Inverse folding.
């Protein structure tokens, strides 16, 4: 199958998958709403649940899942490592700490339409990226083992600071922070969704514009340079775009783990390694995955809602263990 045909077929199938899952999610929940009732009912309660709670939530799950997955795909291409993701490299931890510090400092306000929480999350996530990159680079080459260890170290450091903040918080603040750290998509209204898109859309566009360079970079530094790829500029673009988009999402949803690890890896096993296909498909499959996980989290033991981060961590933990065993020779080196 040609590349263009594979791209079109994959995009269409994954888009249909997202539409089906989004429809299931919209009409699932403690309060039963049919499609005709949602569109024609004059009942205030039905309209509020459908248009102000479920629809924004499905859109937020789509944006968050798609963004984390496409960021993970880009990082895996950059570091040439299937274990690289915003979560394993400490970017999620950095963004979480930045967002938490902004919230606790009373900076949960907007300036010129931009949330200071999102800006703080972006700053901490890009600082984390630079730290992990500088620590893992030896002799101009990124060492796989050092890369993952640096990500683990960053996550531990951030966790220590978060626990320190928790220790000196009152019960209500501590419970609110704990709930946020577990990952949640319980946004109310479309306002948060649109503000998140302000950061996500440019980040995703930048990543999609670099897919051709990512493919050439996968052939090796020397080959990529000889074919006209400006490696330093490509690296900076990916650092900036992943930090911007993932930081904005995490500032709203909390650190939802493993989406950026699982989704690109599954797609590479099915579709190959062409990043021109993998990145856009990662967005669609990540959106479907997180929307489905969120639907399960709020319906499996309804009316009690399980934080969606617990669902993704349970699935991702098993997958990560399998991936470690499958690639253990590469990691040891």
């Amino acid at each position: 199958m040609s590349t263009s045909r594979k791209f079109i077929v994959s995009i269409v199938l994954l888009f249909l998958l997202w539409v089906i899952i989004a429809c299931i999610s919209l009409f699932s929940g403690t309060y039963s709403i049919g499609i005709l009732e949602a569109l024609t009912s004059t009942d205030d309660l039905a309209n509020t649940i459908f248009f102000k709670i479920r629809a924004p939530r499905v859109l937020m799950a789509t944006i968050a899942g798609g963004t984390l997955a496409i960021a993970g795909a880009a990082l895996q291409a950059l570091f040439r490592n299937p274990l690289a993701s915003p979560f394993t490299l400490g970017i999620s931890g950095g963004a979480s700490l930045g967002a938490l510090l902004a919230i606790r400092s009373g900076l949960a306000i907007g300036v010129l339409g931009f949330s200071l929480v999102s800006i703080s999350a972006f700053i901490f996530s890009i600082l984390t990226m630079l730290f992990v990159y500088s620590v893992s680079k030896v002799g101009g080459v990124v060492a796989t083992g050092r890369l993952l260890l640096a990500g683990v170290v960053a996550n531990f450091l951030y966790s220590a600071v978060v626990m320190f903040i928790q220790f000196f918080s009152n019960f209500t603040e501590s419970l609110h922070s704990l709930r946020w750290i577990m990952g949640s998509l319980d946004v109310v209204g479309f306002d948060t969704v649109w503000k998140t898109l302000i950061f996500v859309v440019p980040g995703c566009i930048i990543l999609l514009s670099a897919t051709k360079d990512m493919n050439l970079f996968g052939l090796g530094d020397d080959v990529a340079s000889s074919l006209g790829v400006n490696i330093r500029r490509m690296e900076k673009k990916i650092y900036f775009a992943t930090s911007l988009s993932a930081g904005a999402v995490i500032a709203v949803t909390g650190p939802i783990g493993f989406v950026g690890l699982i989704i690109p890896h599954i797609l590479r096993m099915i579709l190959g390694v062409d990043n021109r296909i993998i990145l856009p498909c990662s967005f669609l499959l990540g959106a479907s995955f997180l929307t489905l996980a969120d639907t399960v989290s709020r319906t499996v033991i309804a009316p009690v809602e399980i934080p969606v981060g617990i669902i993704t961590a349970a699935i991702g933990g098993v997958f990560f263990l399998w991936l470690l065993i499958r690639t253990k020779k590469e990691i040891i080196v």
About this structure: Residues 258 and 316 are 5 Å apart (CA to CA). The longest strand covers residues 110-111.
